[in-house]
Amino acid sequence: MSEQKLGRVYLVGAGCGSADLITLRGKRLLEQCDAVVYDDLIDPALLDLAPLDAERRYLGKRCGKHSAPQGDISAALIALAQAGKTVVRLKGGDPFVFGRGGEEALALQAAGIPFQVVPGISSAIAIPALAGIPVTHRGLSRSFHVVTAHTAQGALADFDRLANLEGTLVFLMGLSHLEEIAQGLVAAGRSPDTPAAVVSGGCAPHPVTVRAPLAQLSAAAEKAGVQPPAVIVVG
Predict the structure, then answer these.
(1) Contact at 8 Å (CB) between 166 and 143?
(2) Fewer C-beta neighbours within 10 Å, C or N terminus of the chain?
(3) Cα separations in angstroms, 233 against 42, 63, 67, 138, 180
C-alpha cells in the first residue's frame, strides 16, 4: 500500500467585513480546498465558496468566550494535512496581526506540514477606514502604531511609552479595558482632548462608531452600548 500523500495548509486572511474583501488568491484557494477551518467573525458567504463536499470545521478563538484551545486548533490543522487534505485556515483580518497565525505556522513547521500564508486586510486599518477614519493623514499623522491592549499574561500596555509616540494609536482587543487605556494615556501625558474613537464594525454583530475626546471616550462608548469586537483609535 502506498504511503498517504501529505496535504498542505494555507493560512488565509479573510479581511474584515463582507465576503468580497477577501483577496482573489484567498477566494481561489477556498474554491479548491478539501477542508476549511474557520474563526469567529467570518462572513458566512465565504464558506459557500468551498466545494460542497469540503469539510467545514469551526474552531474559533475569542477572548471572553468559550473557544477551542490554540493547541487543539493547531493539532486539527496538522491532522487534516496528514490525512492528505488541502486545508484553508480562514482567519479574520490578517493571520499575522494578533491572529495567532504565527503560532499555527510554528506548529505546522514543527510537524513537517507544508504551509503558505495569504495576507488579509487587518482590522487595525480596515475597521477605522470603514468608519471614515484614516490611520494616517498628511500633516496630521505620519505613522500609526498597532497595539494589543493586554498581553498573554494579562498586563496592560506600557502607557508611559505609548503616550509619547507620534502618530495614531490603534488598540485591538481592548474594549473591556477602555477606561484604563484612556486614563493611562492621559496620566502619562496625552491630552484629554485628543480625538479618539471606538469602532465596532466589519462582521461585528452590533456595528457602531463612537467619536469623543480621549477623556470622555469610555463614557461615550458605554452610553452607545458598544460591544466587542471593537477597535480603539487615539489621535
Answers:
(1) yes
(2) N
(3) 23, 20, 27, 17, 14
For residue 1, pLDDT beyond 50: no
Q: How far is CA 68 from CA 100, 106, 161, 185, in A?
A: 13, 18, 34, 33
Annotation says 173 is catalytic: yes
Pull the grid cell for residue 57: 470545521
Give the chain's length: 235
Q: Is 39 a known active-site residue? A: yes
- Set of cell numbers at residue 183: 486614563
Q: What is the pTM of this model?
A: 0.90
Contact, 105 vs 53, CB < 8 A?
A: no
User: How do beta strands 231-234 and 168-172 pair?
Assistant: antiparallel
The set of cell numbers assigned to 15 is: 479581511
Q: Model confidence over 111-121: pLDDT tens digits?
A: 999 999 999 99
Angle (deg, nearest 10), helices 217-224 and 178-187: 160
* Catalytic residue check, 43: no
Which runs of E-coded beta strand occur in 104-207? 115-118, 144-148, 168-172, 195-200
Give the pLDDT confidence of 55-89 residue by residue, as tens digits.
999 997 665 555 689 999 999 999 999 999 999 99
CA distance 56 to 79: 14
How many Cβ atoms are within 10 Å of 92's Cβ, its own excluded?
26
From 27, 160, 173, 193, the catalytic residue: 173
What is the Cα–Cα distance from 30 to 57, expressed in whole angstroms? Answer: 13
Integer Cα distance of 221 and 58 in angstroms = 31
